[in-house]
Amino acid sequence: MTDLTVAPLSDPTDIYRHRDAIYGTDMLIAALKGLDFFTWLSRGAQSVESICEYFGFKYRPVDVMTTYFVASGWVQREGNCLSITEKAKEHLVENSPWFIGPYFPVIEDRPIAKDLLELLKTGEPANFASRDNEDDWHKAMETETFAKEFTAMMDCRGLLLAQAMAKRLDLSGRKRLLDIAGGSGVYACSLATHFPGLEATVLDKEPVDAIAAKAIADRGFTGRVDTFAMDMLEAPLPKEYDVHLFSNVLHDWDIDLVKRLLEKSAEALEMGGLLLVHDMFLNAEKTGPLHTAEYSVLLMHVTQGRCYSEKEITDSAKEAGFRRMDFVASAANRSVLVFERM
Predict the structure, then answer these.
(1) How many CB atoms lie within 10 A of CB 197?
(2) What angle do CA 255, 297, 105 make, to 5 degrees?
(3) Does residue 232 form part of some domain?
(4) What whole-number distance in Å separates Cα of residue 38 and Cα of residue 291?
(5) Helix H or strand E encompassing 200
(6) Domain co-membership, 190 together with 246
(7) Tens-place pLDDT, residues 44-69
(8) Angle between helices 59-72 and 48-55 (to 10 degrees)
(9) Residues 46 and 146 in one domain
(10) Contact at 8 Å (CB) between 74 and 83?
(11) CATH number of the domain that 119 lies in?
(12) By C-alpha distance, which of 230, 175, 171 is closest to 206?
């Protein structure tokens, strides 16, 4: 197995971005070819709410779409008002001589773009990767075949992200970590490697808990990292831990459930306990970074969530009873927000 303390010699962030941004172009195609969105927006500034009202769309996907367009430089945001930029007026508005619309494929040739149009209307995630024979990600994860496929995908990514995160955190003196919805356990194992006094539990639903147990054993961490089968949305979190980790988890859920998960963490942690939120974060103004805005389109397609800004997570954590301690960069434009239970 790969040494969880060793980083690659080269930075693969640009390669990661190809995966993270894979649905961004389809979002542009959906808006350009399916809605003529930029021509409509050129008639006057709008808010996310007014866009939802005009098209009959749901808030979450419109927020993701417009944030991506702002980060791309095609839409500008001033407070709650969204308007198109000069670049968009030249190249994305139908009556411009430089209109590039005909260069893009039709919706019927792009299943992802077609699903994104439907998702704007319903707010519900599409089938994973727009597969005809697959459920949406949340339901698909209840089947062993898909759970193994997806957990392996996240484990592959975690090899880079987990060791980068562990090297930049200070968990000295901490005894027990709960890795909530921890997948394969690669983050729990990496943190246990870097902090010899730390034991960890990977909490996840069936059948992922069994997949994690095997991966943990294969890495040689049986005895220091164990598993606990539980649906984090259905029951209180166990209380015998002084560190909670949500790594690439909160972005799978809409804001009301994010707040509830943070409240559940606060209810389980004693005063002084740490909460680690590891993810990709938008800036406070939600104008970028572009890499994060692109990734948010992927999340919007496949999950009930999106990428959140630092401010959104910080404000929600404060409401739950935490105070912000630190912001720590990891790798591939991911970071950790560190909170303490008050």
Answers:
(1) 10
(2) 150
(3) yes
(4) 22
(5) strand 199-204
(6) yes
(7) 999 999 999 999 999 999 999 999 99
(8) 120
(9) no
(10) no
(11) 1.10.10.10
(12) 230
The answer to whether position 8 is within a domain reads: no
My answer on whether 214 and 248 are in the same domain is yes
Q: What does the buried/exposed string (b/e) look like for 199-236 if buried means 16 or more CB atoms within 10 Å of the residue's CB? A: bbbbbbbebbbebbbebbeebebeeebbbbebebeeee
CATH no. for residue 248? 3.40.50.150
Question: Domain count of the chain?
Answer: 2
Quote the CA–CA distance of 201 and 183 in Å, as a whole number.
Answer: 11
Same domain flag for 69 and 198:
no
For residues 300 and 21, give the distance between their C-alpha atoms in angstroms, rounded to a whole number. 12
Q: Which of 63, 93, 124 is the last residue of a domain?
A: 124
Exposure string over 29-52, b if 16+ CB within 10 A, otherwise e: bbbbbbbebbbbbbeebbebeebb
- The per-residue pLDDT of the chain, averaged, comes to 95
Closest of 181, 161, 158 to residue 169, by C-alpha: 161
Domain boundary among 68, 98, 124: 124
In a domain, 49, yes or no: yes
Burial of 288 (0-12, 13-18, 19+ CB in 10 A): middle
Structure confidence at residue 275 as a pLDDT band (50, 70, 90): very high
Contact between 262 and 316 (Cβ < 8 Å): yes
Residue 34: domain span: 13-124
Which residues have C-beta within 8 Å of that of residue 139, sequence separation ≥ 6? Answer: none
The phi and psi torsions of 285 (rounded to 5 degrees) equal -80, -10
> Is the domain of 78 the same as that of 211?
no
| Residue 65 lies inside a defined structural domain of this protein | yes
Stated pTM of the model: 0.95
Dump pLDDT digits (tens) for 210-225.
999 999 999 999 999 9
Residue range 97-152, pLDDT digits in tens = 999 999 999 999 999 999 999 999 999 998 876 777 666 777 878 888 988 999 99
Cβ neighbours for 14, distance < 8 A, ≥ 6 positions apart: none
Distances in whole angstroms, Cα of residue 179 to Cα of each of 33, 183, 225, 304: 42, 9, 10, 21
